[in-house]
Amino acid sequence: MGGVVCAKMVSMSSKAQFVRSDRVTHALDADAAWQQLVRRDAAAEFFYGVTTTGVFCRPGCSSRLPLRRNVRFFRTVAEAQAAEFRACRRCKPDAAWGRPLDLVRGYLEAHADRRVSLDELGRVAGLSPFTVQRLFKQAMGVSPLQYQRALRAGGLRRALKQGGRVTDAIYAAGFGSSSRAHEGAALGMPLARFAAGGRGERICFTTARTPFGWMVVGATARGLCWLALAATKQEAEASLREEFPAAEMKRDVGLGKWVEAAVRAVTAARGAKDELPLDLRGTAFQLRVWQALRAIPRGETRSYSELAREMGMPKSTRAVARACAMNRVAVVVPCHRVVGAGGSLTGYRWGVERKRKLLEAEGSS
Ligand SMILES: [Zn+2]
Predict the structure, then answer these.
(1) Domain end call among 146, 164, 195
(2) Shared-domain flag, residues 122 and 190
(3) How many angstroms separate the alpha carbon of residue 50 from the centre of ligand 1?
(4) How far is the CA of 15 from the centre of ligand 1 (A)?
(5) Beta bridge partners of 217
(6) Predicted pLDDT of residue 189
(7) What band does 299 get if pLDDT is binned at 50, 70 and 90?
(8) CATH number, domain at 131?
């Protein structure tokens, strides 16, 4: 296996477009589609464009619901693009949702707060419920239901990773009894790997000097899982090994283009933006916060309370701040765009001075 294996795997997976259009033989019923859009039904099989913004989205997008009169529906990405709509940056209707399993995993993570049925997942993936179950289990080592349980056990996972006593971890995660925790912790591969600092994961990485210090990027076959800034190359690499002490590491200079893309995300002219594949893992709540961070436009900042309000959780400022602090992919998930209520820089996992430079480069300070 050569040094570019990771980068290649990723680009292949993002190219494997999942064709939905061939299954949609009926004409799109605009009224029914509108009802699905109002419900933000992520399993709905269409895309919608907003004429006032020129952007098209998946029905489950977290953006604000547009006015009915400004909406146009499309059965395929190609149709939307032919009508000169461009893809939304939040829900990425044109991007790597290629593989049905990614689709299923993303859907489970977005709906971790309730039980998702196999029928529902079948619709999302365009497969039979039975096939979803079988493929998912094959790939993940757990059933979709177990995966959801594992997601809900995020607090447990974190506590275990920090090396706390199991009984304390169970208590911290809010499980009523150890038997329920066991049920949630019968996790199979993904969670066990995570708890063990990346054991069983293969992470390709590279380092490069950037205007913001030494940058290290780490990627699994799914995408970027670590991006950190440090004063020296050694320090940068050490941060990756600390986060994933048990993962198999492999240097891959092919990832240098991801470093460049990350730097461009801060320095390039507005509008130019590369979409890097991300392998973000966390609780459903953390994933929501990181998603909200990615929605802060370059050149703008938010306070933690503003971010919490934008997420519709005005009382969760502290939890939002904690989730920002757990971000593993600096710059691309722009936690540096969150500042103190008075505009002060507050803390930054990778150094306040670097945060200041990043914000300067973005023209927001
Ligand atoms: Zn969208």
Answers:
(1) 195
(2) yes
(3) 10
(4) 20
(5) 206, 227
(6) 27
(7) confident
(8) 1.10.10.60
Compute, in angstroms, the gap from residue 306 CA to the centroid of ligand 1.
21
pLDDT surpasses 70 at 50: yes
The answer to whether residue 251 is domain-embedded is yes
Indicate whether 174 and 191 sit together in one domain. Answer: yes
Whether 4 shows a pLDDT value over 50: the answer reads no
Which residues are registered as beta bridge partners of 216? Answer: 207, 228
What is d(CA 98, CA 281) in angstroms, rounded to the nearest whole number? 19
Read off the pLDDT of each residue in 204-231 and give the average, rounded to a whole number: 92
What pLDDT shows up at residue 166?
A: 43
Residues 181 and 206 in one domain: no
CB-based neighbours (< 5 A) of ligand 1, an ion: 57, 61, 63, 88, 90-91
Q: Is residue 151 a part of any domain in this protein? A: yes
The pLDDT value given to residue 347: 74
Least confident piece of the model among 87-91, 140-144, 164-168:
164-168
pLDDT beyond 80 at 14: no
Residue 205 CA to ligand 1 center (angstroms) comes to 30
The residues carrying an active-site annotation are 57, 335
User: Cα of 364 to ligand 1 centre, how many Å?
Assistant: 25
Asked if residue 214 lies in contact with residue 1, where contact means CB atoms within 8 angstroms, the answer is no
Are residues 148 and 210 both part of a single domain?
no
- Same domain (yes/no): 301, 241: no
Distance CA 206, CA 21 (A): 38
**Same-domain check for residues 104 and 191:** yes
**Rounded (to 5) percent helix, strand, coil in the chain:** 45, 15, 40
Q: What is the pLDDT of residue 264?
A: 87
Rounded CA-CA distance 215/350 in Å is 10
- Distance (angstroms) between ligand 1 centre and the Cα of 48 equals 9
How do beta strands 86-87 and 55-57 pair?
A: parallel
**Residue 148 belongs to a domain:** yes
